[in-house]
Design goal:
The complex is a heterodimer of chains A (275) and B (108). Chain A is of the alpha+beta class and 275 residues long. Helix content of chain A is 43%, strand content 22%. Chain A folds into two domains: 4-119, no CATH class; 122-134 and 180-259, Alpha-Beta Plaits (2-Layer Sandwich). In chain A, strands 1, 2, 3, 4 and 5 form a five-stranded antiparallel β-sheet that branches. In chain A, strand 2 and strand 3 form a beta hairpin. In chain A, helix 6 packs across helix 8 (160-195) and helix 8 packs antiparallel against helix 9 (229-241). Chain A is globular, with a radius of gyration of 25 Å. Chain B has helices spanning 19-28, 41-54, 58-63, 68-71, 79-106. Chain B has one domain (19-28, 39-106). With 108 residues, chain B is mostly helical. Helix content of chain B is 57%, strand content 0%. Classes of the chains: A alpha+beta (275), B mainly alpha (108). The interface between A and B is large, with 69 and 51 residues. Chain B: InterPro entries: Gas-vesicle_GvpA-like, GvpA, GvpA-like_CS. Chain B: Keywords: Gas vesicle. Chain B: It is found in: Gas vesicle. Chain B: One of its GO terms (cellular component) is gas vesicle.
C-alpha cells in the first residue's frame, strides 16, 4: 500500500501513552518515529489526497481543510497533554520515514533549541470583542438630538436625511464601543503580558459576517508555564467582570504555535559562504 | 462561562476554540518545513488571507444560519453557480432602480 508520511510535530520522548483512540489526518493513528533522541509524530496518508496536485486542490476546499485542520489539531492537543510538542504547519508531508529522518537530522539543533525554550510551556489565546450590536440601540437612544424629540419622528417613513443621521449615530455608537474595547484590551494586554513569559499580537479575526457577535478588536497569544496557567486564567477571568459591552474570550491551552518563530524558515542546503 | 476546571487538560474538539482559532494556528503559525511534497505555500497564504477576511466566529456565523464556506466562490467551486445567480439578480435589481431615476432626471 502506498502512503505518504504526514508529520504533526517534533518532540522529546514522553512516557505517557497517547490516547488509544486517537486518529490523525485521513484516519490513520499517529505513531512515533525516533531519531537521535527526538520524536517525530507521523501518520500515513494516502497519496491520492496528499500528493502535490490533489493536495493543492484540497486546500481550496474548505470542507476538506476544516476536517484536516481539526484532525491535525486533535493530534497536537493530545501531544500537549503529555509533552511539549513543536507543532509543524498543516500538511508537512514526506515520501517515507527516511525522508522524515533526514529532515530531523538536518534540523536537529533547531529543534533542540526551540524545545529547550518552550519546555513545559503552553499558549493561551485571548480575544476581546466589542459587542457593538447590543450596545448600539442604547447608545443611539442616548444620542437622540433634543430638536428631534418634539417632531415625533416616524420610524417607517424616514427621509433620506433622517436615514443618514440614524446611520451616522449607529456608526458613532459602534465606534464608541470599539474605542472602549480597544482601551480595555490595551490594559488587559499590559496585565497579561507582564505575567506571561512572552506574547504575540495577532490580526483580529474579521467579523464581517458575525456583527451580531461583536467585533474582534484584539487577538493575542501568551506563552505561560503550565504550572502558572491557573493563575493566568484567573487573571483573565477577573478582567471580564468589569467590562460591560465587551466580551473576553479565552482559548487554550494550545501547543506553543505562536512562539516557534525563532525557528528560522528553512534555507536551501547551501554551504555558507564566509564573508 | 466557567473556567475553574479547565486545566491542564486541553479542551475537547469543538468546545472553546472555533474553526477560525484552529485555522489561524495550523495554517499560519507553527514550524514551516519544506517536505517532500512541495505545495506552493503561497496557495496556503492566499487561502489564509481569504479566511482572515471572512472568518469571524464560525460558530456564530452558523448560529446566524450562514454557511459561509458554501457561499464564498473563492473557497468552494460549488458556490460558483450561486454566486453568478446572485450577481445577476443584484445587477438586475440595480438596473431596475437606476432606470426610473434616470427617467425622472431626464424629464424636463
Amino acid at each position: 500500500m502506498t502512503g505518504l508520511r504526514y508529520v504533526y510535530a517534533v518532540c522529546r520522548p514522553f512516557r505517557s501513552a497517547l490516547q488509544a483512540q486517537l486518529s490523525g489526518v485521513a484516519g490513520a493513528p499517529p505513531k512515533q518515529l525516533t531519531h537521535h533522541g527526538l520524536i517525530a509524530v507521523v501518520s500515513t496518508v494516502p497519496e491520492a489526497d496528499f500528493a502535490e496536485e490533489p493536495l493543492r486542490a484540497h486546500l481550496e476546499d474548505l470542507d476538506w481543510l476544516t476536517a484536516t485542520a481539526r484532525a491535525h489539531q486533535q493530534v497536537i492537543d493530545a501531544l500537549t497533554v503529555v509533552t511539549t510538542p513543536l507543532p509543524l504547519r498543516l500538511a508537512t508531508v514526506f515520501r517515507d520515514d527516511s525522508g522524515v529522518r533526514s529532515m530531523m537530522e538536518a534540523r536537529e539543533e533547531d529543534f533542540r533549541r526551540v524545545l529547550d525554550r518552550l519546555e513545559g510551556r503552553v499558549e493561551w489565546g485571548v480575544k476581546v470583542y466589542a459587542e457593538t450590536e447590543r450596545a448600539g440601540p442604547t447608545e443611539r437612544a442616548g444620542l437622540t438630538e433634543p430638536a428631534e424629540t418634539g417632531g415625533g419622528p416616524e420610524p417607517k417613513a424616514v427621509s433620506g436625511r433622517d436615514y443618514l443621521r440614524r446611520r451616522r449615530m449607529q456608526t458613532q455608537a459602534r465606534e464608541d464601543v470599539w474605542h472602549r474595547a480597544a482601551a480595555f484590551a490595551g490594559r488587559l494586554h499590559e496585565t497579561l503580558s507582564s505575567f506571561a513569559e512572552e506574547s504575540r499580537l495577532h490580526a483580529p479575526q474579521n467579523s464581517a459576517l458575525s456583527r451580531a457577535s461583536g467585533q474582534n478588536v484584539f487577538n493575542a497569544a501568551y506563552l505561560v508555564p503550565r504550572a502558572d496557567s491557573e493563575e493566568f486564567v484567573e487573571l483573565v477571568d477577573q478582567a471580564k467582570d468589569d467590562a460591560p459591552g465587551i466580551r473576553v474570550e479565552l482559548t487554550g491551552p494550545w501547543a506553543a504555535y505562536s512562539f516557534t518563530g525563532e525557528f528560522a524558515e528553512e534555507e536551501p542546503d547551501e554551504p555558507e559562504v564566509g564573508p | 462561562m466557567t473556567m475553574s476546571s479547565r486545566l491542564p487538560e486541553p479542551y475537547g474538539q469543538g468546545s472553546g476554540a472555533n474553526l477560525a482559532d484552529i485555522l489561524e494556528r495550523v495554517l499560519d503559525k507553527g514550524i514551516v518545513i519544506a517536505g517532500d511534497i512541495r505545495i506552493n505555500l503561497l496557495d496556503i497564504e492566499l487561502l489564509t488571507i481569504k479566511l482572515r477576511l471572512i472568518v469571524a466566529s464560525v460558530d456564530k456565523a452558523k448560529e446566524m444560519g450562514i454557511d459561509w464556506w458554501e457561499d464564498d466562490p473563492a473557497l468552494s467551486s460549488r458556490a460558483h453557480r450561486n454566486e453568478l445567480a446572485r450577481e445577476n439578480a443584484e445587477l438586475r435589481e440595480r438596473l431596475a432602480q437606476l432606470e426610473p431615476t434616470r427617467g425622472e432626471e431626464e424629464a424636463p
